[in-house]
Design goal:
The structure holds two protein chains of two kinds. Helix content of chain A is 43%, strand content 17%. Chain A is α+β, with helices and mostly antiparallel strands. Chain B is α/β, with parallel strands linked by helices. Classes of the chains: A alpha+beta, B alpha/beta. At the A-B interface, helix 1, helix 4, helix 5 and helix 6 of A face helix 1, helix 2, helix 5 and helix 9 of B.
Chain lengths: 431, 260
């Protein structure tokens, strides 16, 4: 029997946030080795938070990720407020939902148009795509910028915004600013409504897989900041008991820790969120999704991009609803008195649940920190998906096609490797 | 005439400064017509070895591999610009330089021997010559596009000599240090953010790094006068630009006085 011995090395996966690599060994037409390698250098945030005051935490943890700083700020402020027994009131709750709408819109629009769409239309980048699809790319950057405007409204700037604090916000914008933003969002709605029909025209691949979805679930609302951790396997747990079910471990090929649920890979992010919370969307959005020909829950990972578009549509309507009721409060925050104990927070970052745990002393000084970002939670699932997807695609496919396919599979997860610690370099060895 | 070739390289960072390009919207599309973007992994084009006219560098150097990469990039780039606190001063992760980095690694990773890590986190200028520095955590699209515009016009970019205080005055923002006794660092911080924090009623924590001609020790005394302990004064300076020499030195001085 002649053994197939081909060694292929492809250096970089583009259009993901961060630095990773993929190693694939094919031996006798079987995958003998497949690793998603993450070699983003560790930055050790959990250690230099020790000794800091709780008030310093929101601005420090924001620096873990430039794409989703608000998520880090929200998981942190919720954790401390729960431990300190503080309820900042309805205005702050509403504005935190609005803040998160801004971040989901910005992050999802960036992913759909600048990172993912070139795959489906056959371009190297959105800039190359813009020559033939100027309307679509322009729409993408316009929607992304409106997300950023929401972030600036409450945070002063979109990357590492400075508005959030434990107890509320530093500043409440005035009614005129709210009015002006509302107007812009309303004017953009027709553009946003084109997203789902456009995606349904792209003929996305069909790749159905078995996986466990994990997301927050709230008694009434589509989840941003609040709710219990739910799974498609029937879990319903609090942030406090997270570590009884989820475990993290290190593997030699990655600077991001791997996370498992009851010993198994699982999915977090827009698709998991929508799979578990489709019934929490307003009726008219459910109707728009069905009208575009999509159904949730879905086991097709290519529906991740659709889930992002659904969440953009939802976030626009939610932001408009919140701004229509906007009034400037007397104070944008409440007073906080620290207490010793362990603070747990879990909110829905654009890429999925983001879990924080802080040990705090009676003066509010941080003693110990654990942060579990969405991408490290998806790491095991991405490897599992790749194995199946590449087998289904055909191991005898030419190297270039294999690489493009693998990259596309990875991009469905919109991995943020600077969160998980970031860059993809696909190495295929056929032995 | 062939277009100016540009590359954007990422090192240890949060990716936030690359968003100065990706969030630029219509300006990003215009930029892509004015220049030839050879390498920008997050946006799509990949050619790490490309010879370019302008290289933008995000992130600090924290591994041996990064050290080798930056040395090679310097050789193939005509004009090298650092973007952001990480590339320019080491960033927040340079806090590791104040502690035992290896000990930290082993408290997070069960097998620290798999992790490629240098003992210190350093700005780009520690390893190679930097032609222009853009400070900020994060930098803004305006800062980055202004530098590109200058270079395309054959003009050497100029750094601001202003401090955040000037921006506050122009915005008619009431001084947080004088009127609220907040430990504001605006008086020693480079302008550029638009004085966002004071406009929100909070004290500046120096995302944009030390300005020229700063009197950090006088400000440290003022903060101590507000009742901040030496550690608290030090922690104000030990954020995004903790490794900038001016800020590092004031911490050493403040903590030294404390130990005496």
């Amino acid at each position: 029997m002649t053994e197939k011995k081909i060694s292929i090395r492809v250096p970089v996966l583009a259009r993901v946030e961060g630095e990773g690599a993929l190693e694939l060994d094919i031996e006798n037409n079987q995958i003998s080795h497949l690793k998603l390698k993450i070699f983003e250098p560790p930055r050790l945030f959990e250690k230099f938070l020790e000794g800091r005051h709780y008030t310093e935490v929101p601005d420090i943890v924001a620096r873990i990720c430039g794409i989703c700083p608000v998520a880090y700020q929200m998981s942190a402020v919720h954790a401390f407020e729960k431990l300190f027994d503080v309820d900042p009131g309805p205005w702050v709750h509403a504005m935190r939902r609005l803040f998160y709408c801004g971040e989901w819109i910005e992050s999802h629009a960036l992913h759909i148009h600048l990172l993912a769409a070139p795959d489906f239309l056959g371009y190297e980048s959105a800039v190359a795509m813009a020559k033939d699809f100027p309307e679509e790319v322009k729409r993408g950057v316009t929607i992304q910028n409106l997300g950023n405007e929401i972030l600036r409204f409450l945070g002063g700037r979109s990357v590492h915004p400075v508005g959030a604090k434990v107890g509320g916000f530093f500043h409440a914008p005035d009614e005129q600013q709210a009015e002006a933003l509302l107007e812009k969002l309303k004017n953009a709605l027709p553009m946003v409504e084109k997203l789902l029909p456009w995606l349904s025209s792209l003929s996305l691949p069909d790749s159905n897989q078995q996986f466990t979805s994990v997301a927050l679930r709230h008694p009434a609302d589509y989840p941003f900041n609040e709710g219990r951790i739910d799974s498609s396997d029937g879990h319903n747990i609090s942030a406090e008991t997270y570590s009884q079910h989820f475990s993290e471990h290190q593997e030699a090929h990655s600077t991001a820790l791997f996370s498992l649920l009851d010993g198994k890979p699982y999915l977090v992010g827009p698709l998991a969120r929508l799979n578990l919370n489709f019934d929490r969307l307003p009726k008219h959005i459910e109707v728009a999704v069905l009208a575009a020909g999509f159904k949730f829950p879905s086991t097709n990972m290519y529906h991740s991009i659709v889930a992002r578009a659904v969440e953009i549509l939802f976030a626009f309507h939610e932001a408009i609803r919140l701004l229509e009721n906007y009034t400037r409060p007397e104070s944008p925050s409440v007073n906080v008195t620290p207490k010793a104990g362990i603070a747990y927070g879990c909110t829905e970052a654009p890429r999925g649940i983001l879990w924080h745990r802080y040990e705090v002393d009676e003066n509010g000084i941080i003693q110990k920190v654990t942060i579990v970002p969405p991408t490290s939670q998806n790491q095991a699932r991405i490897e599992e998906d790749l194995k199946q997807s590449i087998m289904d695609f055909g191991l005898d496919q030419p190297e270039e096609k294999l690489r493009l396919h693998a990259e596309q599979v990875v991009r469905n997860y919109d991995p943020c490797i600077s969160c998980a610690t970031h860059f993809l370099d696909l190495r295929v060895n056929r032995l | 005439m062939s277009k100016v070739k540009v590359a954007v390289h990422k090192f240890s960072s949060c990716d936030g400064c690359q968003l100065a390009f990706l969030n630029a919207g219509a300006d990003l599309l215009l930029l892509s017509e004015l220049v030839d973007i050879k390498h920008f992994v997050e946006a799509g084009p990949v050619d790490e070895d490309a010879e370019v006219d302008i290289a933008f560098i995000e992130g600090s150097i924290s591994t041996r591999k990064e050290q080798q990469r930056i040395e090679k990039i310097r050789q193939q780039s005509n004009y090298l610009v650092t973007i952001g606190a990480c590339a320019t001063s080491g960033g927040i992760q340079a806090l590791r330089n104040f502690a035992d980095g290896q000990k930290w690694l082993s408290s997070i990773y069960a097998s620290p021997e798999y992790i490629d890590s240098l003992d210190t986190v350093s700005p780009i200028s520690e390893y190679v010559h930097v032609d222009f520095e853009i400070w900020g955590c994060p930098v803004t699209s305006k800062q980055v596009l202004t530098v590109i515009r200058s270079l395309l016009s054959g003009v050497t970019p100029r750094d601001t000599t202003e401090k955040v205080c000037m921006e506050c005055k122009r915005n008619n923002t009431v001084c947080t240090l004088v009127t609220k006794s907040e430990p504001c660092l605006g008086a020693v911080t480079k302008a550029g953010c638009g004085a966002l924090c004071p406009a929100f009623g909070r004290d500046c924590f120096s995302c944009f790094g030390p300005a020229q001609d700063t009197n950090t020790s006088s400000l440290a005394n003022r903060l101590a006068g507000f009742g901040l302990s030496s550690e608290e004064v030090c922690r104000r300076y030990q954020l995004m630009n903790n490794n900038a020499p001016v800020f590092r030195n004031i911490c050493v001085r403040v903590m030294g006085q404390h130990n005496d």
